Amino acid sequence: MKLIVQIPCYNESQTLGETVRDIPRDISGIESVEILVIDDGSHDDTSRIAKELGVDHVVRHRTNRGLARSFSTGIDACLKLGADIVVNTDGDNQYAGADIAKLVQPILRGECDVVVGDRQTWTCEHFPLPKRILQQVGSFVVRRLSNTRIPDAVSGFRAFSRDAAMRINVVTTFSYTIETIIQAGRNHMAIGSVPVRTNPKTRPSRLFSSIPQFIRKSAGTMLRAYAMYRPFSVFFTLGVVLATLGAAPIVRFLYFFAIGDGNGHIQSMVLGIALTILGALSWCLGILADLISANRQLLETTLEKVRRLELQQQSVPSPITKVTGSSTPLPRVDLTSDFTIGPSAEVE
Fold first, then answer.
1. What is d(CA 35, CA 9) in angstroms, rounded to the nearest whole number?
2. Measuring CA to CA, how many Å separate 95 from each of 40, 125, 179, 227, 275?
3. Which of 26, 169, 290, 292 could form a cystine bridge with 232, CB 3.0-4.6 A?
4. What is the mean predicted confidence (pLDDT) over 197-222?
5. Alpha-carbon distance 75 to 171, whole Å?
6. Other residues' Cβ atoms within 10 Å of the Cβ of residue 53
7. Can you give the residue ranges of every domain in the chain?
8. Which residues sit opposite 59 in a β-bridge?
9. What is the pTM of this model?
10. Which pLDDT belongs to residue 13?
């Protein structure tokens, strides 16, 4: 049983050392624990420091592509490296690495496909009150949208079984946390949560610059993810709202028309008909979106099968490539055209 801990990083040279040293290398039920650092175009020598810290694998984007893309890159790399369990943690040492052993236990027992670390933010002293309230409200909405019971929806400390990692597909560019929970819930994966500890804040968030921006982006991610998996519900509800709003001015016009005073209220009829037409168009869009959603599910199934085929071919010797700045040839596994991976390998 191989566990790979992936750490998405963007200019985390100051805190990466603490994060790596905090990761246990000996966990009951796990034969080997490896560490993968995803350097998302950092310009502070994050990759070099990661190698000096003795991490097993380094993947580097040539440019900054965002947290969601870094997460996806890490998942692909971990699968290609033969991980049975993937744990994602942050490079700013927010989470207690020792709790990784606790995080993977539900997967080892065969109870869960995905496990999310619950930071228990309501009782966490170094979380400000506005952030606690926002976290509680946001997690409640995500639970409703995903049909799950995860208390801390935006926690980045989470574990995935190999099967779950194969089925996860992140399309947003903001953050993977909300989308993966909605996706897991709507795909009927077994998703659970365990309480974990957190460390004091080491730096301001780089994911968002203000609370309003975070709310706006998170709301957009929730709506997009839910609409992707329940498009007919979204558009049908929208259509009902529009048609109802359209019915009110139509009824108003008919009332005045019935009492012989319809000439001065023609605008109500025009507005009502327009809203009703928009409602009908929304229902039509819902049907089309539902058909497109079925096609997306087929594409996701195809991608999962491709990933399984790639894993079955891991026994085939990989081509050899030289790493920039080194005379020692290292195995190369092509993940995308934008990066290479190997034991502490650099980008070409």
1. 13
2. 20, 14, 21, 31, 50
3. 290
4. 72
5. 14
6. 15
7. 2-229, 231-300
8. 38
9. 0.74
10. 85
